[in-house]
Amino acid sequence: MKKFLMMIGFVAIAAMTACGAGGDDVPVEDDTPVDEAPAADEAATGDFDATAAEDIYNRSCIGCHGQNLQGGGSGPGLIDSGLSVEEIVHVLEQGQGLMPPQDLEPDEAENLAKWILAQ
Ligand code: HEC
């Protein structure tokens, strides 16, 4: 008789667990569009942190390259320079002509380069 009651208890727990599993499907479905959104952005514009890039630009570049990357002070405009991300990173790391090398982390330089190309 005890065994029979234990069986009923087991079935009840199994049924509750099954319901719980059914409920878990909802957040999984919610995640799907969130996962797809960054992938689509990446294909269109490259993946970069605009806030971080602007921060560095305003601190380190604006004096020579102008408020809107149009050039000004002593540097050329950076819009439509025809440079790749790698070439911009190279300029930032090595400097070029009158531009001194910039003291940035490699990922900061790459993020900034992607942002410049998106302007
Ligand atoms: C002290 C002034 C100065 C600062 C600060 C400066 N630049 Fe420059 N930059 C220049 C000058 C001058 C050139 C042109 C160099 C040359 O080709 O003779 C240049 C060139 C460049 C180029 C290459 C443009 C091309 O068409 O070849 C890029 C890209 C660039 N700068 C990005 C930046 C970024 C991003 C920053 C901030 C992290 C920055 N620069 C900070 C003066 C500056």
Descriptive account of the structure:
- By secondary structure, the protein is mostly helical.
- It folds into 2 domains: 1-47; 50-117, Cytochrome Bc1 Complex, Chain D, domain 2, CATH 1.10.760.10.
- It is built from 4 helices and no strands.
- It has helices at 2-45, 50-65, 85-94, 106-117.
- The longest helix has 44 residues, at 2-45.
- The N and C termini lie far apart (77 Å).
- The structure holds heme C.
- Residues 56, 60-61, 63-65, 74-76, 78, 81, 83, 88, 91-92, 96-100, 102, 112 line the site of heme C.
Distance between the termini: 77 Å
Number of domains: 2
The tally of strands reads 0
Unreliable stretches (pLDDT < 50, length at least 5) are 19-23, 35-45
Mean pLDDT: 79
The percent range for helix content is: 55-70%
Q: DSSP helix count?
A: 4
Order of helices and strands: HHHH
CATH topology of the largest domain: Cytochrome Bc1 Complex, Chain D, domain 2
The CATH top-level class label of the largest domain:
Mainly Alpha
Rg, Cα atoms, Å: 27 Å
Q: Could you state the CATH homologous superfamily of the largest domain? A: Cytochrome c-like domain
Distinct small molecules: heme C
Shape type: elongated
Query: Any idea what the CATH architecture of the largest domain is?
Result: Orthogonal Bundle
Biggest beta-sheet profile: none
Strand content: under 5%
Structural class: mainly alpha
Notable traits:
69% helix, 119 residues, 2 domains, Cytochrome Bc1 Complex, Chain D, domain 2, 0% strand, mainly alpha, single chain
